[in-house]
Request: fold
Amino acid sequence: MKTIDGASLPQEEDLCCNSKLASCDVREIYKRVTSLVVGRRRELKLILSAIFSGKAVLLVGPPGTSKSTLLHALCRTLGMCLHYIEGNADLTASKLVGYFDPAAVLQSGYIPENFNKGILTRAMESGGILYIEDINRIPPDALNALVTVLSEGEIHIPRYGRINALNDFRIVASLSVFGIGPTKLSRAILDRFVKINLGYQSEEEEKEIVRRMTKCEISWLINLGVKIARETRKHPDLRLGASVRGAIDFVSLIVDLTQLDSLHEGYLLEIANLSFSSKIWKKASCERTEEEIVGELFRDALSNISIENSLKTTDVYEKGEISGDIWPGLDEARIKRMSRWLKLLRQNVNSHRRNLYLLSTLGDYLSQIKNVDMLKDIFRGPASPELYLLMRHTLDEQTKAVARELATHVIMNRAHNLTFFGLRTGERKRCRFDGDGLIDIDRTVENIVEKGEKYNLSMDDIIVTKRERAKRTCLLMIDASESMFPMKIGLAALAAAVLSYCYSSKDDFYGVIAFHSLPFILKPIEQDIPVDKIVEDILTLNATRGSFTNYYRAFNVAFSEVSKMPSSRMEIFLMTDGAWTVGEDPRPLIRKSDVSRINILYLERGDFQFAKELAYKGQVIKIDDWPSIVKGINQIMNTPY
Reply:
């Protein structure tokens, strides 16, 4: 067995003698590819090992981590063809495999000459690497065409025959973020790949990449671009930072469009916004613009970079300090104290939950502010729901209303931005052509041939496939007993917003009820109520001291609500900590229900076993923070009935 830097690779005699790969010197291939690519030694050894062993490879990593660069360099070195597929929702099995030409079939029948080969069959017959970019964007029915190719190296095409792949045919696919996408990859697909993770490269390697790509030799400029790109990946307001492409664009634009003796700080900032603002992905809770975040990172990076004298570093940015006119009526000492406490509270909300003195003092200070705009500035930010939930009982009505409005806004943003990924797009069904859908060529030709030559054709003879969503009914049940307050009720508000977007189709029905000793309906299932109003009503709920949790009454109301709508799928989401304290046992009632399934969004520190017993044909998802809400609901939505 040959080795490269201690890593084992298969020998040539392990390969089929008919393969082009069998004649390759593995060590020489490794040397030549490493001269074309910066770094990636470990990943290249793994890819070579997988390809020479005949395995399909799944490359997983953020955008801009040299996935396609590695493959292009490898194919160029091996002298192999690189077939490229860009994953998208419009890619069908017929586009991958091929199809019979309808006009030719009508004239001469199903003969091989009338078959138009797709890229998959062409790649199998000619050899080389088939690169599928963003494989999780391909619909499941199209992905099914890959199963036998991945496992057996062949594909059977009705009326055409069997196609065997050449021995040097390989499949390599990529995922920008593992497990997230419009299509959730099935275990049948994932089981046939070997997975290789590609993270961001080291700072020195990224500097070398920028230097090679831009032909720039100005060290401070390269350092500045790379520094900004790397800091975006750690920024708390960003879900996904910029790849090294941002630094490449930043440096190349400056080198190509300006003379260095005319540079100044303001112009550099404009180029930074131009290069990075489109490459970062904000968190749903972030209310700042991309340009504001890039400006902050640019100034921080610029202050830590040793800049040559050719740059005119005019100080055009001023940092505002807290002054006495911001909160009229408060003395300077209180202003400084409140500013410091608010900053600490925002940084770590959980550590101050039990500090009643801090919360009550802050509430007293904030209640003295009568200017609504000033209050919005104080409560605005990603932590506004937590601040509101912790402080609402210490605030006057005006301040509470402002804080609740901003908390609702943050929750709505989080739900809107995060619920798109992972949702099922419906089931594909065959039907008559009505101006929409993808034409099923084989079924259409069969339909026409069966009618005979003398039959007058019409639009009704065209068979199409299109996705149809079943009519669905969803009800969210929120445990509003005392144990849910203060913070768990914020998670319930986000769950309500997430489900409202998941069930936003005109054929869907969606309702919300809350309960403790007695249930009460927040959104009747047959009424249209704005989502922000539902979220605000949930945030307004108060803990009733001495209240108990009566699941039996709550499920009675829930089953009555979902039965009002004629739907093929009736689903209940129960958010609870599983603490049953009063009323009849709800489990016999649940087993007699007609709902499709009952899912439990379980909040920690409760009775988990009882929560599992409440789940009827559904799942139990543990919830402990904001992201787990979206992840859990998406997991349930992607699970077939």
About this structure: The mean pLDDT is 76. The longest strand covers residues 472-479.
